[in-house]
Amino acid sequence: MSKRERILVWAVAMVIGFFVLDRFVITPLQTHLSQLAVDADAVDQEISEARVLIDNRELIETRWAGRVGAGLGLDPASARLGVQGQLSEFAEASGLSLTNLSAGGDLKSDPYTEVRFSLTGTGELRQVVRFLKHVQEASIPLAVQTCDVSRRDDNGGRLTLRLTVSTLVYSGKEAGL
Question: Rounded to two decimals, what is the model's pTM?
């Protein structure tokens, strides 16, 4: 081979070597390093959220104790009475006319029992909105499971609200954390 051919072979080999090196070493390494940076940011975010929880632990425990002690007691029967009473108060305060309010089945999951309630009511849009706002701001912890709003008449003045809510009752030996 002539000197010129050897130089061309070397040049082609170097170009092919560079492409192979880029394909199997440099690009995967850059991808891995960028993924590590993303993962590190996610871990930093989790750490900062955990620090906020740790810093607010006393406040959270106080709020939880207040919610547990907000009339729920330690048994589902007292929870039913407390929630039914509050839902009736919310309906009266918002002007919503309740046509049905009933307690559903209890779902047990140690150490908690989930107590469900179904209600149906009618009213104008502002009354339905006020009622839902009361449910959202309740002192007893309530979770909305289903919510259905439909027109009761053709002009849309009266609405029917069908709502299923639940609350948790601590069914362990003590009401602490």
Answer: 0.57
